[in-house]
Design goal:
Immunoglobulin-like; 2 helices; mainly beta; 47% strand; 7% helix; elongated
């Protein structure tokens, strides 16, 4: 750059190239000085914190941005000190004026406020205060009711029967449930007559943690005048977010109800999505039918009902299983199909899924409710037993 003294140009004077070039050089030098000052490099200035985003409280495991000046490049040569915890890993988008990072989940005693500052080779910044919150865990999952009732023998008027179920809260957070008995398809005595003579234990709400199923028991006395009824257990969370009803038990006076052997647990899925495994619209869906979990099948369609099969840890539960499906009194409205697989060898404590086909052949689009039974038959001879799931089915348009 040529050394030239810049003076005011008088009217009528000729503006020479040397004067213009000197002016350009001076502007470039000024721009370079300003840039250096803003970056802090030229004056070796310590970082300055101006604000942060978000401005309110911040959850751990979420991003926090510190906004200021004099952060140096490479960005990793800056250190954020948050509540005494050093942070050197920064997210994309960080630069000389923004340091973006994820608040680590290493703080105890939350919620609380902690100081934050930035330090680098030119010194420490001023401090700001950050209110830290614990990470919010969203509730999710499902409730599973597993039958544990032993064989009941013949159902007689005035006799009391003991029923039992394992309730498993397969949820992210513990859930507190209340329990009640549901009586449906009652013939003879009224629903209230059955309820008056029934008792559920526990009678008070019970908190259940994931992986720690709780045994719920009940006693049912057959009232005078009763002919038949179906009995199920209902588990409902206090906030009504989780509601599950067990498979029904048939109480028909003079008959012996079929009870699923508890060594194998067969259950309907908590949810059936709108599309099948091939990406096609599902022709079946979960539904609550007469107060219990059931399946709806699109009129005129064939659908696949997924069944979860869980073999307990009982050593006698290991072995070969044959799978069958039936519809009770189909009346020309239903055609049960094959079960896939038809046979499987399973070990104790093993879990697998089986698929049962079902066709709704109802041309009249009626709302008649029938019952489908999916059986898992173990072995033959004296060691044989049958576990099953029984649920209501109904045709629907969807």
């Amino acid at each position: 750059m040529s050394i030239i003294t810049l003076q005011n140009v008088q009217p009528g004077e000729l503006i020479k190239a040397d004067f213009v070039n000197a002016l350009i050089d001076a502007l470039q030098a000024l721009d370079s000085r300003v840039t250096s000052l803003e970056s802090g490099e030229a004056g070796n200035r310590p970082p300055i914190l101006m604000e942060r985003s978000p401005g309110g409280n911040v959850e751990v495991n979420t991003p926090l941005t510190l906004i200021g000046r004099n952060f140096i490049v490479p960005i990793e040569e800056n250190t954020v000190v948050l509540g005494g915890v050093p942070i050197n890993q920064f997210n994309n988008g960080s630069d000389e004026q923004n340091l973006i990072f994820t608040v680590p989940n290493v703080f105890g005693g939350l919620p609380r406020s902690v100081p934050v500052k930035v330090t680098n080779r030119y010194g420490d910044s001023n401090e700001l205060t950050v209110g830290l919150l614990p990470h919010a865990v969203n509730q999710g999952g499902t409730t599973v009711i597993l039958p544990q009732t032993p064989p009941l023998g013949q159902i007689n008027i005035g006799q009391t029967y003991s029923l039992s179920w394992l309730v498993d809260s397969q949820t992210v957070l513990p859930v507190t449930y209340t329990f009640s008995l549901v009586f449906t398809n009652v013939v003879g005595a009224s629903v209230s007559a059955w309820q008056t003579l029934a008792q559920v234990t526990p009678s008070q709400p019970k908190e259940i943690h994931a992986g720690a199923p709780f045994l719920v028991t009940a006693t049912v006395k057959v009232p005078n005048g009763a002919t038949s009824a179906q009995v199920a257990l209902k588990a409902e969370s206090l906030d009504h977010a989780f509601v599950r009803t067990s498979d029904t038990l048939d109480f028909t006076v003079g008959q012996t109800p079929a009870v699923s052997d508890p060594r194998v647990l067969l259950t309907l899925p908590a949810l059936i999505g709108p599309f099948d495994s091939q990406g096609q619209p599902n022709t079946v869906r979960k539904a609550t039918i007469n107060g219990v979990d059931g399946i709806e099948v699109k009129f005129g369609a064939t659908g696949t009902v997924p069944i979860k099969m869980q073999v307990t840890a009982d050593p006698s539960a290991a072995g070969t299983y044959n799978f069958t499906t039936t519809v009770e009194s189909p009346a020309g409205l239903w055609q049960p199909g094959t079960v896939t697989p038809a046979t499987a060898g399973l070990s104790a404590s093993q879990t697998r899924n089986i698929d049962a086909q079902l066709r709704n052949s109802d041309s009249g689009n009626s709302s008649t409710v029938k019952f489908m039974v999916v059986n898992a038959v173990h072995g033959t001879g004296n060691g044989a037993f049958t576990s099953f799931v029984r649920f209501p089915i109904r045709g629907a348009n969807f």
